[in-house]
Structures are given as structure tokens and as C-alpha cells.
Design a protein that fits this description.
single chain, TIM Barrel, 3-stranded parallel β-sheet, 42% helix, binds zinc ion
């Protein structure tokens, strides 16, 4: 076989087995074979007949819309064919708390540019809140979130996605937290100087001494440690160091879908001991079960997402699972959860599988809010302790 045909075969196999990740590339447009997102948003209310009102708090712990808002000039009031989250879809879907990601692509933004990119995304969110203050409220705390929800508004939380945004400077953690940034996905794709990612050349590495200081400083200020995208060793190291509950905001069970972005039983058990929460992800590549027949190309569905949910509840417990859709993160969502307007289908699916209304409320948002509150309280307790060693 020629070198050219060998490399195209390899490329084909990588695509076939889902090893070429697209998550995080928001600009990926829907392929012709994919469902037209906007059209389904309009069709959703007729398609769904919820048997119960939505839970009072529906918190999506990972939404990536800010890139298209900043780079393309989109607005959350617009219902776009290639947008999975907007104010209208959130209202239809009953989603009233959104943890927006300030995502930094470390290949594109290096050094100070990474910090500036996170700041620009933060500013884009603030502009949206100012423009739509009748419907959208920026929230810094769990009580802010509850107040916004009780007023019938959508609570907007901000979280960094990629510790490259702090540019190896621990002081930026408290600066971002002072601005109301309430969590940080500590790594993204590719290793940082202080922490390894699950998708990197050497995913066996963990946290360095500086990486451990990052976790301590996040605990000190009450910024939630988010371990989605971390290597397993980084996650284990962070769980060793953290005195407060952590999250995996948007990851599934690798026992069902063995993708490096998903987490195994050991991490789920450690998460339970830590008191943290994992958010089930709707990206088809992180949902698709390991195929017995490689020719089986049926797209994953809502039911496959519920299989991940059931599994993670079985291993970690019902108090330790939530929702982190990954919508607008360049993902192809599973069939049945194409955009935020479809969220009621998720809860209907849970009811069909026998979850109680109390358990649905926990998974819908109470679990993630509990972690946010625990980090706020932990920070208050730590207020008299000296700040972590400052390093550049
Ligand atoms: Zn992500």
C-alpha cells in the first residue's frame, strides 16, 4: 500500500473511531446530514409533552456560546440555525442557570494573550447581561443564582475553560474570582507547564508543585476546581490536594464510552468521597457506546445519554451527578438533545427510568449548586489563612 493511501486509511480509521476530537471548535457548522438545529428548536414544544413542570433549578454546567458571540457578533436573543443555546431556547427548555465557559484555545492564545482572551469573553458575557437584563442576570454566588431563578430570570455564571488563562500567575486566580468567575477547568487540550490534559502527548503526567498551588489557591478563594479535560493523574492529584468539592463539568463514563475525555470508575468513586459532581455531556462522541460492530454507525440518542447518567449514578451516587451539555462547543449533540429547548426530554427520560422528582431536582441543578455553595463557605473559612505562595 502506498504511503498516501496508508495515511488516508489511517485518517479514515481515526474518524471512524472518533479519535479526531472536534469539541471546542465552536465554528464547526452542522453537516448537511445533521439535523437543522434552529428548526428543531421551533418544533420542540409540539414534540414534547412533559408530564410535570420543570425542576425549579435547571443548571447546565457547561455552555460554550461566548465564542460565537465574541467572534461572530452573535446575540443571545437570536435564534440561529447553528446555535444550540439562546435566550429563547433556554426559556422553552426551562434551563434557568447557565455556567458559560470562557474557553481559551492554547494553540491560538499564548502567554498574556490567553489571559486577554478570557477577559474578552468575560466582557462579551457582561455585554449580553447588560443588553438583556430583563431576562439574564450575572451571578457570583449560589444565593445570586437562587434569587435570579425565583425572579423567573436566567442566571449566568462564568467559568474559565483552560488554566492557561492564568499564565502561570497564581495572583490571577483571585483577580478572576473577584470579577465573579466561579470555576476553572484547569486544563484543556495539551499539557500546561503545571498540569497534564487527557488529550495530550503525555497524558500520564499529573500536577506539578505549581499545579498543586493552583488547586490550593482556588480552594482559598472559593473558585470551583473543574477537572473535565484533565489527565487521570492530574485529576487524582487535584482530588488529593483539594479540601473542597470539585467538579467534572462535562464528562461521561469511560466504562460505556472509552474516550479520553470521559472518566473511569476510580475517578467516579473518588468524586463521591470528595462530595463533588460530574455533569453528563451530550456530545455524541463522548456518548457513543463502544461498538460491537464497527459498521454500526447509528447516531447516539438521548437514551444513550441516560445510560451514562444511570451508570454514573450507580457508581458515584445520585448526589454526585448533574448536567454539562457542552452545547455550542463545536459538538454534534445526540439525537433528541439537539439544543437547549430539548432539555425537558432529558427529565422525561429520567421519569421513564423511574427517577423520583427529588432525584431529578438534584441532577437538574441542586447538586452543582451545592458544590458552588460549599466552595463559597470553604473560602469564608479560609479567609484568615495566608494566601498561597505567590509565583510567576
Ligand atoms: Zn470542554
Amino acid at each position: 500500500m502506498s504511503r498516501k493511501s496508508l495515511s488516508s486509511l489511517l485518517l479514515g480509521l481515526l474518524v471512524l473511531f472518533g479519535a479526531l476530537p472536534a469539541e471546542g471548535q465552536w465554528y464547526r457548522r452542522a453537516q448537511p446530514s445533521e439535523p437543522p438545529v434552529g428548526v428543531q428548536a421551533e418544533a420542540a414544544p409540539e414534540a414534547q409533552t412533559p408530564t410535570a413542570p420543570p425542576p425549579p433549578i435547571v443548571l447546565d454546567a457547561h455552555v460554550d456560546s461566548l465564542h460565537r458571540i465574541l467572534d461572530r457578533g452573535d446575540d443571545l436573543s437570536e435564534t440561529l440555525m447553528d446555535g444550540q443555546v439562546d435566550l429563547n431556547k433556554l426559556r422553552i427548555g426551562g434551563v434557568n442557570v447557565v455556567w458559560f465557559a470562557l474557553w481559551v484555545d492554547q494553540d491560538k492564545y499564548k502567554g498574556e494573550a490567553a489571559t486577554k482572551r478570557a477577559l474578552a469573553l468575560y466582557e462579551a458575557l457582561q455585554k449580553q447581561v447588560a443588553r438583556h437584563n430583563d431576562r439574564l442576570v450575572f451571578c457570583r454566588t449560589s444565593s445570586d443564582v437562587r434569587r435570579a431563578a425565583s425572579e423567573g430570570k436566567i442566571a449566568a455564571l462564568a467559568g474559565i475553560e483552560n488554566g492557561s488563562a492564568i499564565n502561570n500567575d497564581l495572583r490571577l486566580i483571585s483577580s478572576f474570582h473577584d470579577m465573579g468567575v466561579t470555576r476553572m477547568v484547569i486544563t484543556w487540550r495539551g499539557n500546561l507547564a503545571w498540569g497534564a490534559a487527557s488529550q495530550s502527548e503525555n497524558p500520564k503526567l499529573g500536577l506539578t508543585a505549581l499545579g498543586r498551588e493552583v488547586i490550593r489557591e482556588m480552594n482559598r478563594v472559593g473558585m470551583v476546581v473543574d477537572l473535565s479535560h484533565s489527565s487521570k493523574q492530574t485529576a487524582l492529584d487535584a482530588l488529593d490536594v483539594s479540601t473542597l468539592p470539585v467538579i467534572f463539568s462535562h464528562s461521561n463514563a469511560s466504562a460505556i464510552c472509552p474516550h479520553p475525555r470521559n472518566i473511569d470508575d476510580e475517578l467516579l468513586q473518588r468524586l463521591k468521597q470528595n462530595g463533588g459532581v460530574v455533569g453528563v455531556n451530550f456530545y455524541d462522541r463522548f456518548v457513543r457506546p463502544a461498538r460491537k460492530n464497527i459498521l454500526d454507525r447509528r447516531p447516539p440518542t438521548l437514551d444513550n445519554v441516560l445510560d451514562h447518567l444511570d451508570y454514573m449514578v450507580k457508581i458515584a451516587g445520585v448526589d454526585h451527578v448533574g448536567i454539562g451539555s457542552d452545547w455550542d462547543g463545536g459538538i454534534v449533540p445526540v439525537v433528541g438533545l439537539e439544543n437547549a429547548s430539548h432539555m425537558p426530554s432529558f427529565f422525561e427520560g429520567m421519569r421513564r427510568r423511574g427517577y423520583s422528582e427529588g432525584d431529578i431536582r438534584k441532577i437538574a441543578g441542586e447538586n452543582f449548586l451545592r458544590v458552588l455553595e460549599a466552595n463559597e463557605q470553604g473560602a469564608r473559612k479560609a479567609i484568615d489563612l495566608p494566601p498561597a505562595a505567590r509565583s510567576q
